[in-house]
Structure formats: structure tokens, C-alpha cells
Design goal:
single chain; 0% strand; mainly alpha; 3 helices
Length: 114
């Protein structure tokens, strides 16, 4: 009779231990799935952010390239070697400068002349 009780207690302890280990395994597998899902979501978000950043950088580079040609060559030459030393600036100079400034602002804002 003593052996039967001992086996019953050992069987009950074994069942308790097996349940405990099984619960740990289940908890570990749920955590692993959650970590993998979070990693995949982070990778997807990182890829999307990199795409947006590269598109934005390309658009900015295009605007900068457009700004290189915004100031006419004649105006650049007048700024490097001023034609007017002691006189007031002519109307043509102001017109060229205003046109260049307007084109630069339009290029930066993305609005085009209609």
C-alpha cells in the first residue's frame, strides 16, 4: 500500500512538472512569434521610411538642379564683374534679378508658371 501511494504522489508530481514545462514552452513560443512579428513590422517600416526619404532626397536634388539654372548667365556676369561702378542700377538689372528670384522661389515651392 505504501508503494502505491508513493507512485501516485510521484505520478502527480510528474504530471504537475510536465504541465509546468508545457506552459513554459507555450509562453516561449508565443513570445517568439511576437518578437518575429515585431521584427518584420520594424523591417517593413524601415523600408518604407527609406523609400520616402530617398524620394524626398531625389525631389530636392531636382529642385537644386533647377536652381542652378535659375539665375541667368548675364546676371551672374554682372555680379562677378559689375558694370555699374558709381551709377544706380538700371531697370534691366532689376528685371533680371526679380525674374531670377521669382524663378528660384517658384522652383523651391514646386509651383509652376501657368
Amino acid at each position: 500500500m505504501g508503494k502505491n501511494v508513493l507512485f501516485a504522489i510521484a505520478g502527480l508530481a510528474l504530471a504537475f512538472w510536465a504541465g509546468w514545462v508545457g506552459a513554459d514552452w507555450k509562453r516561449d513560443s508565443v513570445e517568439l512569434v511576437a518578437e518575429r512579428a515585431a521584427g518584420l513590422a520594424a523591417d517593413k517600416a524601415r523600408t518604407q521610411m527609406q523609400d520616402v526619404a530617398s524620394k524626398s532626397a531625389r525631389a530636392f536634388e531636382v529642385k537644386l538642379e533647377a536652381l542652378k539654372s535659375a539665375i541667368p548667365a548675364g546676371l551672374r556676369a554682372e555680379l562677378d564683374k559689375p558694370v555699374f561702378n558709381n551709377d544706380c542700377l538700371s531697370g534691366d538689372y532689376y528685371r533680371l534679378y526679380n525674374t531670377a528670384a521669382e524663378n528660384a522661389e517658384r522652383t523651391l515651392s514646386g509651383k509652376f508658371k501657368n
